[in-house]
């Protein structure tokens, strides 16, 4: 099947975003294993990339569905999804990701993508309403037309809050869950190994870190690759329904279209998981330094605790189909192991800066996507 140019560009940009997500976000899964010198940076990125890609087979053939991709595709009311909306959201997400990567800020690629999608859809709805109001009431001035259009947007359910609210809540809940689990795991391990030879115990935990980092990389692949798959899915579903008027898609209830897409476009999740793995192999050293050393100094024992706690959190959220930030999750887990030593072991100045980046990611991405949508429609 030959796709229109715009749809092809969207798929290409989505996979570029996925690749960028790899070197931006997947550094989270190797930061502790590098800082504890269990693996060299090169060995670590290869290890993480392998498990990022292996997550495809877990999702496709063991879990049997892509819940997070489904959630992402349905964050916006399908009546307000167009190819221009999706393109604008992707451009904004890529721009914010590259900016935060350049400054070494571990912001969330996931929330960047979601914020861009929401912002572009809201701007699309606003522009449609603005033109409708202007046509229906030509005597109104700019301010009055703007106000009326804005009011109409607020009544149209552009955003599916049943999908979006859990995503917002887990901006804060995911790191807290990771932190609590890591504290519990650390305390249990310390109790079990309190009479062990320190050197032998340290060597044991270095070997265990290979397993814990693999689990976290697996969770990262399950979580983040599906988000790009969800965006591509939204574009392809729009193409089949609104452009081709494909009777197969039209006869499937809206809630079931994504599952049908995932079955018949299996190459989409395959290349999504592959792209994030390739991105991981490209590194992300500035963020590794922040995650692995600046928040708190991490030992092999604490690396095992943090990565295991992060992996458990990601597996739980994947089970419930809630997209979360792997950055937030591993940060909370690292803070948790720091707190088991003493509160001052956590460098709270760095942590507060990260928190601000997390809070601002969605609104800034939404604003950039809205402006991008205006430019796209202006020149299209």
From TrEMBL:
Cellular component per GO, a single term: membrane
Organism for this UniProt entry: Chryseobacterium populi
Protein family according to the UniProt entry: Belongs to the inorganic phosphate transporter (PiT) (TC 2.A.20) family.
InterPro entries (UniProt xref): Phos_transporter
Keywords in alphabetical order: Membrane, Phosphate transport, Transmembrane, Transmembrane helix, Transport
GO molecular function: phosphate transmembrane transporter activity
Matches recorded under Pfam families: PHO4
Biological processes per GO annotation: phosphate ion transmembrane transport
Membrane-related topology note: Multi-pass membrane protein
Subcellular location: Membrane
Principal cellular location given in the protein's record: membrane
Name used for this protein in its record: Phosphate transporter
